[in-house]
Amino acid sequence: MMLQTFQVNYEPCHENEVVCITGSVPSLGSWSPLALQPMTKDLSGSRWTCDIDVEAAKGSVIQYRYAVCNFMCSSTPQILQWETNLSPRQISVSEKTCSTGLETFGKYGECSVQRGPLVATREIHLMFEKANLTSLTSSLNSSHCRLGIKAIDITNSTCPVPVLVHNLSENDISPRPQCEHGEMLETSSDVLLFSTQGLPTNHEVKFIIQLIQEGGRLPTKKESPKRLKGDISILAEGVIMSNTLINSVGKAPLYFFDDASLSLGHVVVSYAVIEPMKNLEAHSLEVSYATHWKRRNQALNVGHRGMGRSLKDHSLITDPNADELVSIPENTIYSFKEAATHGADFVEFDVHVTKDGFPVLFHDFQFSLCMQEPGSSTNTHIAKLAIKDMTLEQLAVIRKLAPVGKGTTDFLCETTTAVEEDALAFGELQTALQTVPVHCGFDIEIKYPMVCEKSGPEYDGTPMDMNQSLDAILRVVLKYGGQRRIFFSAFNPDVCAMIRLKQCKYPVMMCNFGRTSLYESYNDPRSVCVENSILTSRAYQILGLCGHCEDYIKDPSLVKSCHSNGLTLMCLSGGTVDPSII
User: Fold this and answer.
1) Burial of 293 (0-12, 13-18, 19+ CB in 10 A)
2) Where is the CBM20 domain (predicted)?
3) Neighbouring C-beta atoms of residue 257, cutoff 10 Å
4) Which residue from 341, 503, 551, 563 could staple onto 514, CB 3.0 to 4.6 Å apart?
5) How many helices (H) and strands (E) does the chain have?
6) For 454-475, how does the pLDDT look when each residue is reduced to its tens digit (9 = 90+)?
7) What is the sign of the dihedral through the CA atoms of 138, 142, 144 and 149?
8) What does each C-alpha distance from 411 to 311, 340, 355, 367, 395 come to in angstroms?
């Protein structure tokens, strides 16, 4: 045993902040976020120390990192921020007693500090759009009002619930405390994203949402607003209880009243409830690639759905020598292996979760089962089935049926002649992680339905709970990912935010095709255009964007905008194989 003294300088931003240490040996918690070791603050208020007996032989190397935590409402820490340099700090054990000397939090080598994963707390996100508030503010004769939120922990009133805000109309989109008298909503496209901080998972919270007037306008008789100070007044107030947010994501009605309890109208608020993963043993603070991307001097070869699309959209295939490639079924393990063999740096593929919690490889939300009447070769019936309603065992039967037509989602009730088991649909993500050559990275696109601007919902049914679905995927990836290069991608902004907060190892990319003529845009202000997706990616502190090259060819300034915002940009589609465009 060696007695090690660790010392670090950190000036707390709040009185509840505690500096902790984690490291590579058991006495330092073996990198577990559940075993962070608190340090002691001296009288100066900024110097933190701890003496720890470490199980290390003389000459061995101990790796460690510092983290800033909050233990106020739970014995399990809320990790506010932690050091995420790719290489941890390290100290060589040379004597029975050793000290690191005074270090500075976040400063060694390159400076990289990030927020930690959710461990014992959850986050609730509320999104307000100026466009949805217009009719209400017009009735109040107030086109320029402020919106503020207070959050009260009704389970334990001694626990504060800070609420941070991201304003998508600001250049600095970093999360920050609200302004004293709320946030201004000026233009019709303004969007405010509010998020709770440090709310224990078993606590309920009451949100008080206020519309606040600035200026000298006299109130109407109906308003009778409460005076705050000067010419600030509360025009309307509404309440949302967290226990009414029954799904992971959804929309909640918010009814506004004046101080005389007269109804003034209502709006619809989009929300997301982000829970920590239940299997925290999978978490590790040893390394984080969440905002790391190695710069290269040449383009990456990324296999779309493996070796590329198969059995449909042949018009998109311009390579005259590609016939053999497109005969390999897309989104199959066989296709991934072939792509790896032919030099792919990454393969991109789509993942869904079965009814019994197994992540499987498939593109669409549902597939069609074509059934023929006995004794007839023409009378058929089509049954549409959602993957989330099927068990893995049921899919194991269906995957052996013969695909029909040019689609990738239709199956005929007769046995396939496919020889390769890996070439069948609905392969397991775990199997892909275990059998595809590890040098081939994975772009795991997580499918979750959204609403299109014109055609409406992508999927008419009720999707699987988002927390449940993402936890199932993350458990498999964290357990079997090994040394493979992996990043997650998704079109749904809430999926991106959740993956980022549930784990800290793998990066997340937000997919966005902007205002391209090839695809319909989604009806979500966070992703309706590339510019908003850039701001949303910064707000959620993810790695960057996956985009269609058409947007960036038309407007190259978007590339500079991504890079100036500290984001990584990955472009796809056929245009990216043109050397002049690259």
Assistant:
1) middle
2) 1-110
3) 15
4) 551
5) 10, 36
6) 889 999 899 999 999 999 999 9
7) negative
8) 13, 27, 20, 8, 11
Residue 291 located in a structural domain: yes
Does any domain span residue 551? no
Residue 373 and residue 329 share a domain: yes
Domain containing 27 — which CATH number? 2.60.40.10
- Helix extents (H) in 359-492: 392-398, 429-435, 466-480
pLDDT digits (tens, 9 = 90+) for 399-428: 887 555 444 455 555 545 545 788 889 999
Q: Which two tokens stand for residue 98?
A: 């050793």
- 153 pLDDT tier (thresholds 50, 70, 90): very high
Most confident of 48-62, 262-276, 295-309, 419-433: 262-276
The DSSP letter of residue 498 is: H
- What is the distance between the alpha carbons of residues 101 and 84, in angstroms, rounded to a whole number? 20
State which of 70, 98, 114 marks the end of a domain: 114
Residues 423 and 347: their CA atoms lie apart, in Å, by 15
Cβ proximity of 217 and 141 under 8 Å: yes
* Residue in 207, 197, 102 with CA at minimum distance from that of residue 154: 207
Cβ pair 555, 562 in contact under 8 A = no
CATH number of the domain encompassing residue 167: 2.60.40
In the prediction, which pLDDT does 220 show?
Answer: 45
Residues 434, 330 within the same domain: yes
The tally of CA atoms less than 13 A away on the side-chain side of residue 323 is: 2
Joined together, the tokens standing for residue 80 give 């506010």
Q: What is the mean pLDDT of residues 26-48?
A: 94
Distance, in Å, from the CA atom of 352 to the CA atom of 469, rounded to the nearest integer, reads: 8
* 19 and 153 part of one domain: no
Residue 38 phi/psi, 5° resolution? -65, 145
Please indicate, yes or no, if residue 542 is contained in any of the structural domains. Answer: no
Distance CA 423, CA 401 (A): 12
Locus of tokens 């990275």:
441
Task: Tell me if 572 is assigned to some domain.
Answer: no
User: What count of Cα atoms within 13 Å lies in the side-chain half-sphere of residue 46?
Assistant: 8
User: Which structure tokens are listed for 55?
Assistant: 């199980």
Distances in whole angstroms, Cα of residue 17 to Cα of each of 20, 67, 143, 153, 285: 10, 10, 40, 19, 19
Place of tokens 């296999």: 303
Strands (E), 84-204: 89-92, 97-104, 113-114, 121-129, 145-153, 163-167, 176-177, 183-184, 191-196, 199-200
pLDDT at 57: 79
| Token code pair at residue 240 | 């949302």
Q: Mean pLDDT, to the nearest integer, of 30-46?
A: 94
Region at 192 (left for phi over 0; alpha for psi -120 to 50; beta for the rest): beta
Domain span holding position 319: 280-506
Percent of the chain residues past pLDDT 90, beyond the cut: 57
Per-residue confidence band for 227, with pLDDT thresholds at 50, 70 and 90: very low
What count of other Cβ atoms lies within 10 Å of the Cβ of residue 295? 5
Is 463 in a helix, a strand, or coil?
A: coil
**Tokens linked to 361:** 């490889």
